[in-house]
Amino acid sequence: xxxxxxxxxxxxxxxxxxxxxxxxxxxxxxxxxxxxxxxxxxxxxxxxxxxxxxxxxxxxxxxxxxxxxxxxxxxxxxxxxxxxxxxxxxxxxxxxxxxxxxxxxxxxxxxxxxxxxxxxxxxxxxxxxxxxxxxxxxxxxxxxxxxxxxxxxxxxxxxxxxxxxxxxxxxxxxxxxxxxxxxxxxxxxxxxxxxxxxxxxxxxxxxxxxxxxxxxxxxxxxxxxxxxxxxxxxxxxxxxxxxxxxxxxxxxxxxxxxxxxxxxxxxxxxxxxxxxxxxxxxxxxxxxxxxxxxxxxxxxxxxxxxxxxxxxxxxxxxxxxxxxxxxxxxxxxxxxxxxxxxxxxxxxxxxxxxxxxxxxxxxxxxxxxxxxxxxxxxxxxxxxxxxxxxxxxxxxxxxxxxxxxxxxxxxxxxxxxxxxxxxxxxxxxxxxxxxxxxxxxxxxxxxxxxxxxxxxxxxxxxxxxxxxxxxxxxxxxxxxxxxxxxxxxxxxxxxxxxxxxxxxxxxxxxxxxxxxxxxxxxxxxxxxxxxxxxxxxxxxxxxxxxxxxxxxxxxxxxxxxxxxxxxxxx
Length: 570
Prior knowledge:
By secondary structure, this protein is mostly helical.
């Protein structure tokens, strides 16, 4: 009996030491993970130090473009003022002066021939000199008729300077959101997966952000983007040919590319932020302390529908990218003088530097789409029920505001018989398609394809948003009895848990695993976190397999957490 008693005490001591050692090892792993995340935080701070002066430079140059736009009427000397090269990018012209001159010349020629022919036909003159005399008098009189001087009608349909200014500000805003979310995710690792998804979307938007509306990719109705600006500035030929070659556009070209380079540097900082987020998620994933949780019921269906919504949005976006580049190619190939354009039946004329797109903006449909995307991503990755409720409301608003645009798109498509390929093709070859860049046959066919892609994308997105509304409502309703489980398994405030937490009994070992068999609360002392703030661990009462959490003022634990003690799992 004594031997069995001593052996039992020995086993108890060994198991207690094993539990303590295993808990110490777990804390070492936690400390290693937190140290790696701290290192990534420091690297991100270095990126922010470089990011700040770039933003200041972009704001200054955005103000420069706005200043030129405000004083655009004063830049009239196309030969010496570099600002005029950019001001003229906003204008297309109705060539009235050339139209009137051509019409007047044709009228004079007709009247001269008419007078001479009438005299020869109606009058019985045998002397040809008399007929020639009448014709000469008619021609001389008509030649002296003054031609009215009328200036061409300038249509400010382009928004080059406004787009330049707005794109820079847009890059700053989106990139600030990207860096702010990464900064939070590095301190709250459960947000890393949703942050990675958000950073990918922001990176795409920085280059090619297009609003959901309008449904069709009409160049003078869709917004400009950084990608279209890069393509626009990819060739100096259009600047070199401005005003017949008599210009000072080299300086304007240099300023343009300096500004675009600054925006690309901002995009590069977001690329670095994305790389840091991915590496941090790999650290979290490999950590033995990462969270394990029970997923929300019916949460997969909204994620699948979200993937479909992203696909249809990309169709809309790609159609607008394709139409934008197609229009710029058509404008670059528009090699007509005003007189030649009038003779060819062109009702619109512009310099090759013409930029036909509108200033970027944000419509309600796009805002709601972004809300659905971020909410479902957040709801699934951190098990947030409130996020699914927000996604449900956002998708419902999206569907309501999209009906007018959808009806108008179908009416336009079928009224113009775009379902017939030849009719669609001829539509873009007409003389009225100046805002499409007077496309050639291949470009006209491409426009037809892009319009069809846009209609499929827009229709599909509206249909999927209906389904998302229902799916998110079902998910939120099915999990209404559960608390939103926000896990912070690598939260930096837990670093000194083993050092500061006090067990509530004399048992040796992990205080948390010991509390699996105790109904007494476990309370930790206040600790200083890595970002200088102070938190206090809430009271945790574990009875059986239930975890009761009193958040208190510290709010360290949100919802419930999972603890593991050999055979016991809670």
